[in-house]
Automatic annotation (TrEMBL), chains A, B:
Alphabetically ordered keywords of this record: Hydrolase
Protein name in the entry: NUDIX hydrolase
Signal sequence residues: none
Occurrences of domain Nudix hydrolase (ranges): 8-140
Pfam family membership, one: NUDIX
InterPro entries given in the database record: NUDIX_hydrolase-like_dom_sf (IPR015797), NUDIX_hydrolase_dom (IPR000086), WH-like_DNA-bd_sf (IPR036388), WH_DNA-bd_sf (IPR036390), WHD_NrtR (IPR054105)
Record-level Gene Ontology MF annotations: hydrolase activity
CDD domains: NUDIX_NadM_like
Keyword Disulfide bond appears in the UniProt entry: no
Domain of life: Bacteria
Species name: Belliella filtrata
Keyword Hydrolase: yes
DNA sequence: TGGTATAGTGTAAAAAATACAGTTAATAAT
DNA sequence: ATTATTAACTGTATTTTTTACACTATACCA
């Protein structure tokens, strides 16, 4: 028994993969290996296979490219206009992923000719991939203002100046150090380590790490990481 | 030229249609007319047709059932586990819709044996429709705390007590009248009318209406309609 | 005319957010 | 050894926002 009279469609997931290099946000793009728009830049994507869910497909595709698993990913809105892919109709389910750019370096898969692009100077991209990136960025900016998702981009140990730079990078703004520190520490998500990171100053900055227990419990809580007037007008 | 080797899948939209009757939130369900689970309760849904986007499909399906167009609708997360529909694999794109329950009454399509169910006592539903409803409710609770979406459920003219009842219903809580009024009016989204609604008290309550200009401009702004501790831990 | 039921209104206290600048620590240079 | 340098670190006063809380006003009805 089947829904026999109905039209079936291709369904793909596309991964909007962001990384942060300490100063700037980067987007991981690949060079499309086949026509149309061969060699133009594209999000890493792939069709959903018969035996997998969209989430599984997204993880699979992310792993193919980066070698990484257990990465923060979130589905964003489906793209479904009939003409979006000129070859054949494809419904796209985009996912945002945040990865620690350092971890990626060790596992890169060169088959795809991937490259990090600064989000401030993205190349032309195929189809509606640019829109997907905009949507993903918007969602990220909105969500990161209230939830500690950016912490996913950090290595195990990180400093408060690093964390602040991540927020400043995402919103392209300067944040007062004292106020930022106070807000972040008041969430109780962080544990102070005894060690210092000396790589960026003579004095050195203390390392912090996620207090895993509090982090998971309080992940969905509403925090306030950045000043109100920096939050983009968002709809998510 | 086609992506010939790939599997194509059915893609459906399902509409999670909420209404508010002045006291309670209701969900519009239909009795499924075909097997499996014939006559069990179901969200109104339908397959995406070759010539339409998911948004268009959702509008079409909503109109089929309710006769209503230009309704607030928003896509929520795709449901895609391979086994969710026992007949054949279907990717579902659920949409939340908010409709003015009074408007619906005049346009109801009886073909579908639709019924409003109080969200506090929902019947068993087919497949994963219950999960969709939970997700939709959660998203609604989260979003309505910051954005004036519930205003979509109101008739053209409404009173502050009515508006407050809508918020109290959604969060199942009591809100202080003075604080609520102050917050709502400070958004500048409302215009006070000279007329009163006498239907619910002897004194009568003044009507308000949306200040359309401010409403559209400020829709995406972040407001604060309900007390912090009533906002459900949400992730959207 | 008094009773009744809901609408409407203000203020003080607490909490949160903001604006703002000098001190500290470690290293490097002299 | 002293000094210079650079980024990390820290506190307070002010403003704004949020909360808690209770009495008066209005219109109808008996």
């Amino acid at each position: 028994m089947k829904y026999s009279s109905q039209t079936r469609l291709l369904v793909a997931v596309d991964c909007v993969i962001f990384g942060f290099d300490g100063t700037d946000y980067k987007l991981l793009l690949i060079q499309r290996g086949f026509a149309p728009e061969k060699e133009k830049w594209s999000l890493m994507g792939g069709f959903i296979q018969p035996n997998e869910s969209a989430d599984e497909a997204a993880s699979r595709i992310l792993e193919q490219l980066t070698g990484l698993t257990e990465v923060y990913m979130e589905q964003i809105q489906a793209f479904s206009t009939p003409e979006r892919d000129p070859i054949e109709r494809v419904i796209a389910l985009p996912y945002v992923a945040l990865i620690d750019i350092e971890k990626y370096k060790t596992q890169i898969n060169d088959d795809f000719h991937a490259r990090w692009y600064n989000i401030k100077s993205l190349p032309n991209m195929i189809f509606d991939h640019k829109e997907m990136v905009e949507l993903a960025l918007n969602k990220l900016r909105y969500k990161a203002a209230f939830h500690p998702i950016l912490f996913e981009l950090l290595p195990e140990k990180f400093t408060l100046p690093q964390l602040q730079a991540m927020y400043e990078g995402l919103y392209d703004t300067k944040i007062d150090k004292r106020n930022f520190t106070r807000k972040v520490l008041s969430t109780n998500l962080l544990k102070k380590e005894n060690e210092k990171d000396k790589s960026s100053s003579k004095k050195g900055a203390f390392y912090y790490s996620l207090d895993e227990e509090h982090y998971k419990e309080n992940f969905t809580n509403i925090h306030n990481f950045i000043p109100r007037n920096e939050i983009p007008v968002g709809n998510e």
